[in-house]
Amino acid sequence: MLKNKFLNYINIHTVKSMISMYCKVHHRAEIEPGQSICKSCLKLEIYAINKLEKCLYGINKPNCSKCPVHCYSEEMRNKIQVAMRYSGPRMIYKHPILSVFYIFNSAREVKLPGKSL
């Protein structure tokens, strides 16, 4: 149970960090005073967190780029890909521990839930 919550926290924190990094550079003028990201990135963040929490893989969730099930709408998938392409290479400097977790998670084999190979 504790492992589930920790892994979920890591995934959510990683997505939030990546969206925030992207937004602060590309949408600086759109960020309202007192907010950390713009409204469109906040909408993307909420959408991504919702998808992470409802992932059918649970704790065995692969990185979205390796997942055989594409649960994001095409519009949101394009937005998150743009944010992650920008933030991904920069994560090692801003969030090295999250980067290590991401790298280890991407090395895992992806299996469909309920099926064994």
Describe this structure as you would to a colleague:
The chain has 117 residues and is mainly alpha-helical. It has one domain. The chain has four helices and no strands. It has helices at 2-26, 39-53, 74-94, 96-107. α1 (2-26) crosses α4 and α3 crosses α4 (96-107). The longest helix is centred in the first third of the chain and has 25 residues, at 2-26. It is globular and about 45 Å long.
Describe the structure concisely:
The chain is 62% helix and 0% strand. It is mainly α.
Features:
117 residues, mainly alpha, globular
Give the secondary structure arrangement, pairings included:
Elements: H1 2-26, H2 39-53, H3 74-94, H4 96-107
Helix pairs in contact: 1-2, 1-3, 1-4, 3-4
Number of domains: 1
> What's the overall geometry?
globular
Strand count, sense and barrel status of the largest sheet are: none
Unreliable parts: none
